[in-house]
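Lab meeting minutes (informal)
Scribe: AK
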Amino acid sequence: MDKNSIVFLVLAALAGAALLFRRWYLRFPRSYIVSEQISGDKSLTVTEHNPRFETATIELSVKNLTAFSFMPETAVEFIDTKGEFTRFSLEALEITDVSNTISEDLKHFKCTFEKRDLMRGIRNREIKLNSFRFVALSGQKALIKSHVIAFSTKYMLFRPDSGKYN
């Protein structure tokens, strides 16, 4: 074998190893906490699982120091440029595949749904998307709200900057 063949063989082996490493690395699930809000004895955590994949899910986790006497409901408040909001329940956004679980001690509630269902509900309702927040409800009363959230250009959730300092 001459030098050119050996160099080509080494470069091909390196490229193959890099491709295998990338496939191995992307197989692991990713979870990002988008918002963590604490209000009184309640806390709300918004977590996005595998945001760059088609199967991305959003998990809302509500914790309470005392036991819930009811099953909390979840909704989304869409905020316009004037700061006014319109609230839609997940059912109103046609998100039907929702997993609601509550712990045995009734202090921890989780709601999980797919991000593509949320995006489809926004498109079907023709909502002009600026920013939004998730809300845990007791009837029509808001128990706790997340921080204001928006979608990035790659449709990942993030907390936008208010632009106000001091």
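Next up, CB showed the second protein from the same session:
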Amino acid sequence: MLQRLRIQLPNWAQREHPILRYELNKSVRLTRRAQYVRALWIVLLTLALLVGGYLIATNLLTQSAGQNLTEALLAVVYWPLLAVQVAVQVVAVLMTANVVSEEKRRQTWDNLRATEGGAELVMRTRWAAVFYRLRLPLIVIAVVRALLILGILYDLTAFQGRYLDLLINGIVPDVALPVAAVLLAFFMTSSLLLPLTGVGFDSALGLLIASIFQHRTYAVLAQILLVGARVLLVGLLVFLATQFVNGDLETTDLAAWTLMGAFGAAGDWGLAFLNLGFYGEVWATIPFGIFMGLALLAFSMLQAMVTDWLLALAIRRAEGSG
């Protein structure tokens, strides 16, 4: 199955491509002992994050993590997974933002630019390499989200299968049960796509930085500013969304919809909405909130198109620079 999916990838994005293989092989080769040490650190870090998430979810062991299994699971993994997601976004930028300055330092950039399609191929393979190098955290993000989606499907069987009917009772606008089910499916699809389109967007943004700031010093400064802005944006969206949910933020319906939509699109990639009880509260509290899943799906598709545009722009700038 994976082999069939890989056939759909462009030639330059397949692992067998010589330039992509060269790019991936540039990583430092670790000895077997170093690999064991790294694996141990990954296990310890994972355990630390999960323990921290459990302590936060239970308010330092003073309360239950959630009213049901799905809610408890999300409460425990939410902050650890959010930290992993932010780290992935940051690393995606850092992996691509130095590609031009690195090639110039190796004195290969002029030769690449002089070769037809050479600079483009290097830029595109560096972008594709990000997904290969970050495959472990991306798999973790996808697997946890898939488990939470299965939890949602299980929760829908509550109240003799009428749970979704109860959630849409009294919301604005009134929608039929089949429509609500389709809109929920749109959201579940978007929750799996947003991490991929988000990483692709950040990687393309890093390439654009590389094409604009080709001197290493300027590129590093630009990376610091971009990473700082990214972390600040996520933190601000999480804080404002939390304030709104807790009733500590007075706002209009339009502002609330915009805030929660931005929170799902650029804050936690829709992670909090994978608690059906919480997502149902959004439907009940914010008019037209039930269409948020459709909006997030549309955003992920738009983000993919913008990513492609950013890649093309970065390539044009890089090819035209000296």
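CB comment: Residues 1-5 have pLDDT under 50 and may be disordered.
No objections, moving on.
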